[in-house]
Specification:
mainly beta, Porin, ten-stranded antiparallel β-sheet, 10 strands
Length: about 240
């Protein structure tokens, strides 16, 4: 009697595996949506006179001994959307191409008031808004499947093109394109008709993104105080395949 009850309870707990041949497909497609957080890794000249191209601003009394520092103090959520193309290399590895579009913002704060001709009054930060065309190419390594779940890690690289309009008078100008190293991990879950994945990914810019100095109508010492400016991007994504 007890044996029968125990067997019945065990049978009820047994899970049905869905999409058992999904990972055997050579190629499959899907789409992704997610949230992103853009950041900068900022290296400043300390003092600003360490910049060999620095020109003293006598009108605003900024000389080579002045220390002007900048950083990103506030993380502002952004949005990402893209298409998934996945190629099966073997039972453990996939090559994935996920072209997409990302929107985000970074606020560069300074230790001195920020005077921007586009604002009516001084502020403590300068807003840098970006719209990226994303071209990530990643390797996905999948662990052993456990019923309808499968953890994985990803690594690879990406190229991003910022298609935001950059005016000559922008206080901090950025280069339009750059390469990134990327890594992260996620969790696949198999439903009856599709696979759903939750993924966290970190991207680190390999290029100095600081562009040319702004037009002379702006105060140039803000940009001249920055030695190196590299993008950092954290993305939390939901994949549907």
């Amino acid at each position: 009697m007890f044996v029968i009850i125990g067997f019945s309870a065990g049978a009820q707990k047994q899970k049905v595996n869905f999409l058992t041949t999904f990972d055997d497909k050579l190629i499959h497609f899907g789409f992704t949506i997610g949230l992103n957080a853009l950041d900068f890794n900022v290296v400043n000249y300390n003092p600003i006179g360490e910049n060999p191209e620095f020109v003293p601003d006598k009108i605003n009394r900024i000389g080579p001994d002045n220390i002007i520092r900048s950083d990103v103090a506030t993380i502002i959520p952004g949005f990402t959307v893209g298409i998934i193309s996945s190629l099966r290399l073997n039972k453990d590895f996939n090559l994935r191409f996920l072209p997409g579009l990302s929107f985000g913002e970074r606020q560069l704060t300074f230790n001195v008031p920020v005077y921007d001709i586009n604002n009516y009054e001084a502020t403590q930060y300068y807003s840098v808004k970006s719209t990226f065309l994303d071209f990530p190419l990643l390797i996905k390594y999948k662990a052993r499947r456990i019923n309808n779940d499968r953890p994985y890690v990803i690594f690879g690289g990406a190229y991003r093109q910022d298609i935001s309009r950059t005016a000559k008078e922008d206080l901090i100008k950025l280069k339009s394109g750059g390469f990134y190293a990327e890594f992260g991990g996620g969790w696949d879950h198999y439903f009856p008709f599709f696979r759903f994945s939750v993924e966290a990914k970190f991207s680190y810019g390999l290029n100095n993104q600081l562009g040319d100095l702004p037009a002379p109508v702006q105060r140039q010492y803000y940009a001249q105080s920055i030695k190196d400016l590299r993008s950092k991007i954290f993305t939390f994504s939901f994949h549907f395949e």
